[in-house]
Write a structure and sequence with these properties.
Chain A: The chain crosses the membrane at residues 6-30, 42-61, 73-91. The structure holds two protein chains of two kinds. By secondary structure, chain A is mostly helical. Chain A has one domain (2-102). Chain A contains five helices and no strands. Chain A has helices spanning 2-31, 35-38, 40-64, 72-96, 134-140. Helices cover 61% and strands 11% of the residues of chain B. In chain B, a hairpin with a 5-residue loop joins strand 2 (122-127) and strand 3. Chain B is built from six helices and three strands. The two termini of chain B are 25 Å apart. The longest helix of chain B is centred in the middle third of the chain and has 27 residues, at 60-86. By secondary structure, chain B is mainly alpha-helical. The chains are: A mainly alpha, B mainly alpha.
Chain lengths: 144, 165
């Protein structure tokens, strides 16, 4: 009996931890200032969040139903393969489209400069104009 | 031996496919086992043209240690990024870092890029066409040189050892 209570504790803790991590990862989208920083939330915060929830699911169904449930491991595996690839493609697209980034970003690799090496100046797509309040301007301090 | 080699060009990949199939159907019935073996042999043969030749795993034990380390680092990365998100006072200092690659095989570079994206505050953003440099975006950049050194010793060296000798 005590064993089951302990398992219940473990499952609940895993579920709550998973929810919290997924939520904080999503909160990063709100908190961070530019596209590249926002990428960090979903690529990391959510992997652990989903991982915790899947572990809880594995434990729960292994206890409740006969047999061991491990096919959740597959979800984890596919997630670990796909999440970084998605992140990489998004980041690459962001670089390609010259998305804006915060001024305190350090380092200036050639990908961020206007000209491609060995080519003429490349036309950048026009930036959508949006009236920003003075406070917003001060807070964002965006380059370009 | 040669005919076996032709039928099973990538034994490891076939084994992984078989395990994935058995996990998907959740059964060890002989029928499913047979179907799984057929799929595990057929899929690599059908898709062989799509792959670059896969390097062999030279040190399985090092691979296990590497996977364990990456899982641990994912845990740490999550805590660090969550801390950065939740702490309001201090703004993170983002930055781009160019990382000179030692590894050359496409598969190894892919694995390294994926590992970098999954672990502490870094997202790989671009691989230069000549496969010599990886561009990394760092969420909270403290010391560029230390970061490059950390990635070199923690991830790239083991990967190089596992796949390339």
């Amino acid at each position: 009996m005590a064993f089951y209570v302990l398992l219940e504790w473990v499952i609940s803790l895993l579920l709550i931890a998973g929810g919290v991590f997924a939520f904080v990862g999503s909160l990063g989208m709100l908190q961070f200032k530019d596209f590249f920083m926002r990428l960090h939330g979903p690529t990391k915060g959510t992997t652990l969040g989903i991982g915790c929830i899947l572990m809880a699911s594995m434990v729960y169904f292994s206890v409740v139903q006969p047999g061991i449930h491990v096919q959740e491991l597959l979800i984890t595996l596919f997630l670990f393969i796909t999440a970084p690839v998605t992140g990489h493609m998004l980041a690459k697209t962001g670089l390609h489209m010259h998305l804006r980034y915060t001024r305190d970003t350090r380092g200036s690799p050639p990908e961020l400069r206007d000209e491609d090496v060995g080519q003429g100046r490349v036309e950048r797509p026009p930036r959508p104009r949006r009236p920003a309040s003075e406070g917003q301007k001060r807070r964002w301090r965006l380059r370009r | 031996m040669t005919s076996l080699g032709r039928l099973l060009p990538t034994p490891t990949l076939s084994l992984v496919l078989l395990i994935i199939w058995l996990l998907l159907v959740r059964s060890l019935a002989p029928g499913q086992l047979l179907l799984g073996v057929l799929l595990a042999m057929g899929i690599p043969l059908l898709t062989r043209r799509l792959w670059e030749p896969l390097p062999r795993v030279r040190h399985p034990w090092t691979l296990c240690r590497f996977v364990a380390r990456v899982l641990w680092d994912i845990l740490k990365a999550n805590l660090e990024v969550s801390y950065l998100i939740l702490k309001p006072g201090r703004a993170p200092r983002p930055g781009f870092v160019e990382y000179p690659l030692l590894v050359r095989e496409p598969l190894t570079i892919t694995l390294l890029a994926n590992t970098i994206t999954l672990t502490p505050g870094t997202v790989s953003t671009n691989i230069r066409l000549d496969r010599s440099t990886l561009l990394i975006h760092v969420l909270d950049l403290d010391d560029e040189q230390a970061l490059v050194e950390a990635i070199r010793t923690r991830y790239e060296r083991p990967l190089k050892e596992i796949f390339e000798c």
